[in-house]
Design goal:
- The protein has 343 residues and is an alpha+beta fold.
- The protein has ten helices and ten strands.
- Helix 1 packs antiparallel against helix 5 (114-166), helix 2 packs antiparallel against helix 3 and helix 6 runs antiparallel to helix 7.
- Mean pLDDT is 80; it is low at 303-307.
Length: 343
């Protein structure tokens, strides 16, 4: 199906051709009959238009783009040009007084030779082939650019939806309940808990709106999230975070790591100090190694909540095409996700 832009471009081209022909007829001293118009422009118009659209609608899309056989395209195109020239030559032989007659330098009507006419017919046929190819490739290029812009817009929409999904009301309400409990008990941890929640909300709502953020901010966000989760447990959550390498000076897409950490807390055992949740972050030479491992909870068999691992991987495919590796190990006792990103 042709795009609206391609149709408009083709209409403009044919309007220019018709305008040039009309201008030539009106400025001609020779009175042209309707039959001459039919022979010169009707028959030739059918041949040229057919040549134009066979090339742009059949040969280029099917042979060049689908089959990617340039040699076959050239062979068929040459054959098509030869057929078109032969048809035009046949019309000239049938109506030489119309086709071959022209005004000479001395203002007298002359008959051009078939050799001269053959060269002229070949040139005009080649003109329509070249123009049809140029218009086809140009309109396809602009169409692909428009599609790419739409994909970029769609990706931004997905980003916004993803950011909204991170504002998990259960997480927010649980955090507020935990803070309320701390405040009710007049715990010294209340101020720190409010500060951590404030940092998380600020990052999620404001800083993560940028396409890229500093890696150290993303890591700080993960740490703040972990610290806030620890408030759920009387003796604190059992979490080991290891950070190594070049965290400063590198950038990452925001909120790309947190889903794996959320999953560990939601579906894992977070209060077993002998088998804690382990989060490893290693950044070296534009490569990020990120892994999360947790002991599986026997009481929680639900699928991953939030955006889900499938949506996270889809986001990775969009934002890091051919630049990531995601390995998930789901054993009988532990769940481990390993992510490698080319920053």
């Amino acid at each position: 199906m042709r795009s609206k832009g391609a149709i408009i471009v083709n209409l403009i081209f044919w309007m220019l051709i018709i305008t040039m022909i009309t201008f030539g007829i009106l400025n001609s001293s020779h009175k042209v009959s309707w039959f001459e118009l039919l022979v010169e422009f009707g028959y030739y118009g059918i041949i040229n238009v057919s040549l134009f659209y066979i090339n742009s609608l059949i040969l280029i899309p099917d042979i060049i783009k689908k089959r990617q056989k340039t040699w076959l395209y050239l062979f068929l195109l040459v054959g098509l040009i030869i057929v078109a020239v032969i048809l035009k030559l046949g019309i000239a032989i049938m109506y030489p007084e119309i086709i071959l007659e022209h005004m000479g330098p001395n203002k007298k009507k002359e008959m051009q030779s078939y050799d001269h006419y053959l060269i002229q017919a070949l040139f005009i046929t080649g003109f329509f082939v070249v123009i049809s190819s140029l218009l086809k490739f140009a309109t396809d290029w602009f169409s692909n650019e428009r599609i790419q812009r739409n994909l970029e817009s769609e990706k931004k929409d997905m980003e916004l939806q993803f950011l909204k999904s991170q504002l998990n009301p259960h997480f927010l309400f649980n955090s507020l309940n935990n803070i309320y409990s701390l405040a009710y008990q007049k715990s010294e941890k209340t101020a720190d808990a409010i500060l951590k929640l404030s940092e998380i909300m600020r990052y999620m709502i404001y800083e993560s709106n940028d396409s890229w953020v500093d890696l150290n901010k993303e890591v700080e966000y993960v740490q703040s999230f972990v610290e806030l989760q620890k408030l759920r447990f009387k003796d604190g959550a059992a979490v080991e975070i290891t950070i190594n390498g070049e965290i400063d000076g590198q950038q990452i897409v925001p909120l790309i790591l947190i889903s794996f950490v959320e999953n560990a807390f939601k579906h894992g055992v977070a209060n077993d100090h002998e088998d804690p949740i382990k989060i490893n972050i290693i950044a070296n030479q534009k490569i990020l190694h990120f892994s999360v491992s947790n002991k599986k909870s026997k009481t929680n068999k639900d699928a991953m909540g939030g955006v889900g691992l499938n949506n996270v991987e889809r986001r990775l495919q969009l934002l890091y095409p051919d630049r990531y590796k995601l390995n998930i190990v789901n054993s009988a006792t532990h769940y481990t996700t390993e992510l490698m990103l080319d920053l």
